[in-house]
Amino acid sequence: MGFSQEYRWLLPSALEAPDPGRRSTRDWLIDVLAFLSGFGFTVYGTIDLLRPEPTLLVEQAGNPAWLIWTDFACATVAAIGLWWRRTRLLIPLAIYCVVISIFTVAAAFTLLIVLFTIAVHRKFLVLAIFFVSITATNAVFPFIRPETGRNYWETAAWGTVFLVIVCLWGMVVRARRQLLASYRDRAERAEAEQQLRVAQARTTERNRIAREMHDVLAHRISLLSLHAGALEIKPDAAPDDVANAAGVIRASAHQALQDLREVIGVLRDDRPEGAPEPPQPTLGELPALAEESRSAGVKVSLDVAVEPEAVPAGTGRTAYRIVQEGLTNARKHAPGALVRVNVAGSAGDGLVIEVRNPWPIGGNGTSIPGTGTGLIGLTERTALAGGRLSHGRTPQNEFALTAWLPWPT
Fold first, then answer.
1. Which residues are registered as beta bridge partners of 342?
2. Burial tier of 29 (Cβ tally within 10 Å: 0-12, 13-18, 19+)
3. Whole-angstrom Cα distance, residue 58 to residue 398?
């Protein structure tokens, strides 16, 4: 059962330490030190109180044995509870310490550790409530166990001073941790923003180079066309003119290839040096894609009415991505529905890809959320390939994703 809304202010803050089951080495060292300090003070204080004249504590001698041993038992329980001070059990432990602080001496150090933990790991409202509660019990303590040589106000004042010091110390530690956490968060955001700026700069530079190379390639190809046309118009031109035109065509073609290699190298995704170019999927991989979707729980009916080897590689890659996006959308928005994939066409008429599935009925709480950019990117990819893409609800109450891609003869 979770905490109801009115008690959520008691939950750990963002600076709360991890669960004891996942303590780090530093956490173990601090927890061991806290337990030894709290329980060690309990043992030493009890032994001192059992003496006829206490030397460490200034308690009045002659405390009843039952009170001393009750104090020891309660303080021992509180010291053992320090092992769970990093969990939600800190609040019950603090309440327990407030109750026994009315009469306990042996649990004094444990009580200060618990108060310090609350100051570090809980909100100020929680700390204020427990500080007021402990201050109230501290006001009652001198009546139950008065000290030798001190009046009521001295005993109460010294107890309050220790409580204030521990609270302020814990608040300073908490503020320092919050400051460090804000610095860390700010540094992470700055690093992420820097990476984003680098990526944007790289994309902008690639687009600029692509536009520049487009102009260069268009210029060089126009030279090729011009000189080739001249040779076609004047087949009986002088040998020197033919040789010059052929030299210009050869040089322009060579330079165009060099420019094209540079464009591809700049626009290609970063890969480790020497890594081979991964093979790109084409229509031949559609059965494997359909089988992969079936293994993920999608009902797929695949009908490819063309020979994958006869389709140009670029067209096949685009068609593969269209089918892949269609299956992904069906898996997201219409889980369990039958998805029909049809690929047909011929050289000269183009390639038609159609992905259909029933329109989702009602909401589905288990559907995978989408960003809404998949179809936008797919439309752009199809347009760059010289095709067109449409999607939407059909009169047959189906969602249809239809694309046409050019297939030259």
1. 303, 354
2. exposed
3. 87
Q: The domain 283-361+370-405 belongs to what CATH superfamily?
A: Histidine kinase-like ATPase, C-terminal domain (3.30.565.10)
Nearest to 217 by CA among 225, 205, 206: 225
> Ramachandran region of residue 177, left (φ > 0), alpha (ψ -120 to 50) or beta?
alpha
What tens-digit pLDDT sequence spans the chain (409 residues)? 444 444 444 444 444 444 445 777 777 788 788 788 888 888 877 777 777 665 555 555 456 778 788 888 888 888 888 887 777 777 888 888 888 888 888 888 888 888 888 888 888 888 888 888 888 888 787 777 767 666 777 767 777 788 888 888 888 888 888 888 888 888 888 888 888 887 787 777 666 666 556 545 654 565 566 567 667 777 777 777 777 777 767 776 776 777 666 666 655 555 554 444 455 678 888 998 888 777 666 788 999 999 988 898 888 888 988 888 888 778 777 777 899 999 999 988 999 999 999 987 654 444 444 445 567 777 877 887 889 999 888 888 889 999 999 998 7
For CATH 3.30.565.10, the residue range(s) in the chain are 283-361+370-405
